[in-house]
Write a structure and sequence with these properties.
The protein is an alpha/beta fold. 37% of the residues lie in helices and 23% in strands.
């Protein structure tokens, strides 16, 4: 069995890391570059950087913030939010992203996923559906920020329906939640924000818990 991955998520709004409940009532969690560097030091496997209002505001992801973050971290970096074209994707990859996450644009234009996978490789494309992508990022809006646990039945249903790795997102509040969605939800990786951003747990503590639960992790 491959090692499971712990992936901190940086939701960014106006150049700052924020976290709310169901993307509402946002709290400031720091500068993205500083936060990213801290997670790398803690041993995070990857980092996801989401410009959460880029699509709804009709603007593009902040390239300068992505560049500054990519300059400071050496773990794989996934960037999403406001990516609508092949040129947008190329710009993010050139700015230092290892992967891009397509969500709104993938729903509106699934052909973009197919074209991007052909041009850049499936390993670079993360989406909320399967259309030539390399991974599925599955976020439960109902669970996001609630700290009540992941939507395990939803994750398991998707994981059993596709052959791609599924990244579970939305709802982590306890370390037990991470192990639960990996074991019972069949996720390949867990995305978490609040439990890391505000110091409840470190990435190292999360990995040690998963190891003690019998899951393979990279310490």
């Amino acid at each position: 069995m491959l090692s499971v991955r712990i992936i901190p998520c940086l939701d960014v709004h106006d150049g700052r890391v924020v976290k709310g409940v169901k993307f509402q009532e946002l709290r400031d969690a720091g500068d993205p570059v500083v936060v990213a560097a801290a997670y790398e030091a803690q041993g995070a496997d990857e980092l996801v950087f989401l410009d959460i209002t880029a699509s709804s505001d009709g603007r593009k992801t902040m390239v300068d913030v992505v560049e500054r973050t990519a300059d400071q971290v050496f773990m794989p970096l996934t960037v999403g939010g406001g990516l609508r074209s092949i040129e947008d994707i190329r710009t993010m990859l050139n700015a230092g992203a290892d992967k891009v996450s397509l969500n709104t644009s993938a729903v509106k234009n699934p052909e973009l996923v197919l074209e991007a996978a052909r041009k850049f490789g499936s390993q670079c494309i993360v989406v909320a559906q399967s259309y030539g992508a390399g991974e599925i990022l599955l976020t439960s809006m109902d669970c996001d920020g609630t700290a009540a646990g992941y939507d395990v039945p939803l994750c398991r249903a998707v994981a059993e329906a596709v052959e791609l790795p599924v990244i579970a997102s939305g709802g982590a509040g306890k370390l037990e939640h991470l192990a639960e969605v990996l074991k019972e939800g069949l996720a390949s990786a867990v995305l978490a924000a609040s439990i890391f951003h505000f110091g409840t747990f470190t990435v190292r503590q999360a990995k040690e818990h998963l190891k003690s639960a019998g899951l393979p992790v990279r310490l």
